[in-house]
Amino acid sequence: MDLANLNSKSNDALLPPLSEKVKVRRATPKDLHDIYQIACSVGKSRKDSKQGFLVDDYSSNPKFYQKYILEKIFELNHFYVAEYYGKLLGFLMAYTKDQWLKYNENWLEDIYWHPEFNLTKINSFVLVDKTAILSHLTGQGIGSKLYQYLTNNLYEDGIMNILAETVISPQPNLASLAFRDKQKYKLVGIRYEDYNNQILTDLIYHKSV
């Protein structure tokens, strides 16, 4: 299967939307290599605002990041992959409230919440930490397929709130901002974080399940 040519402009009139053939399932340790390659395709030292990006440079330390991904596969309740005929095209990594605050103890206190946001919604939530699609396959509905799978599982678990962050400075993640709008998220807060000796500005979004 030649992923480089999937739904290229020359094939758009001939192929159904790629997302129609994508299957979503929970990540397993066997997926580690493909997940890492996806992360490397959008997590680089040079960021592309229009394409979207992960903040970390995954190719800078392969052993560290592969170990990190493997640990999250075992730990997280909501780590999903999008698969196309056995090949992974993307992944979504989300934390429950307890899991997220285990690593980010003061995260809720660090946010400047919108005055009209109902803070009871943060009593129970998942935080979508990372969503990544192979760089040449973004914008084809694969991320939406992953989110729908997450939403279905959260509804079954009785979790009604999703939170997510998007970086807007020093380099804005325009693709992520567009995706938040597409998924009908609402802007509910802003946060500043120190990352590799620079201050990142993160917008906090909320969506009800």
TrEMBL record:
Pfam families: Acetyltransf_1 (PF00583)
UniProt domain N-acetyltransferase: residue ranges: 22-209
Keywords noted in UniProt: Transferase
Residues of the signal peptide: none
Name of the protein in its database record: GNAT family N-acetyltransferase
GO molecular function annotations of the record: acyltransferase activity, transferring groups other than amino-acyl groups
